[in-house]
Each structure stands twice: as C-alpha cells, then as structure tokens.
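Weekly puzzle thread! Below is a chain. First person to post its structure in token form gets bragging rights.
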Amino acid sequence: MRKVKYSLDDVKKALVKRCFNAETGVFAGGGQFLQTFVLAEHIVPEESRQKVFNVLLQELEIHDYHPVVGVIGLRRLYETICSFGRYDIAWKVFTVKGFPGQLNMLTNDRTTLTEGLDGGGSGCHTMFGSPDAVFYRMLGGITINRDCPAPLVIRPFCPE
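Winning reply:
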C-alpha cells in the first residue's frame, strides 16, 4: 500500500475548497467555534480573514455575547477576538451575565473551568479556557521580549 503525504498547506487548501464560502465568509456550518478555529489556525485565505471575523462577530451578537464554543475553543475565542484588536468584544464576552459564560461560573463559586460550561464533568480544565493568559498578554499588554535589555513590556489596552 502506497503512503500518501500531504503538506499542511495541502490540507488547508482542501478544507477551504470543501468547506468555505468566500462570498459569505462562513466556514462549514458557521458558528463561533468554526469561525474562531479557521482564523486562529490561519486556514482561510488572508484576503478573507476580515469577512470570516465579521461572521464571528455576528455569531457572538446572535447569542448576546455568550460564548458557545465549548471549553476547548474558549481561550482561542479570546485570542482571536483580541488579535483583530477588538478587546472591547473580548471583555464583553468575558463579562456577559448569565449562562453560558465565565462570569456565570465565577458568580456560582466555580473558580476553575469545568469540563462542561454547565458545571458538569471534571472541574479542572483551565488549560483550555482560562482567559487570564490572554488578558495578561492582550488586555494588560504584559509580554516578554527576550531581545530587549528590559525584557518585560507593558502596553495595556485602555477601553474608551
């Protein structure tokens, strides 16, 4: 049996060809996770990124800024929103009241991310959804630049 090797670019092109509507900016069935994933992994072509991000913003608005990406997609959602400079939206998603949402978890005495956004399953999934690293880096502007004599860089985001 012959082994076929595909490059990462081959896989991305195949996904785009099969699942992406360049006219609408919707990847596969759309939704917050799919739109986030293709942006975070740079799967869609560069010229389509803003359109895909706009669909993500529409999906967030449809759900009143409640994250419906699951725990694995939560951190990527924050990173993606911030990478487009929309720190205000990341903050809105984080502070949205009610279920699902991280503020809901905190107000219900859950200080670590549970497996299910409803509080079910294992109670220690911070590696997937914890927004603190994103907030330190993107909202707080706290980064490390090892090429600099003073490697700690602080450039906080200031909401209007």
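Puzzle host: Confirmed. Bonus trivia for everyone else. The mean pLDDT is 82.
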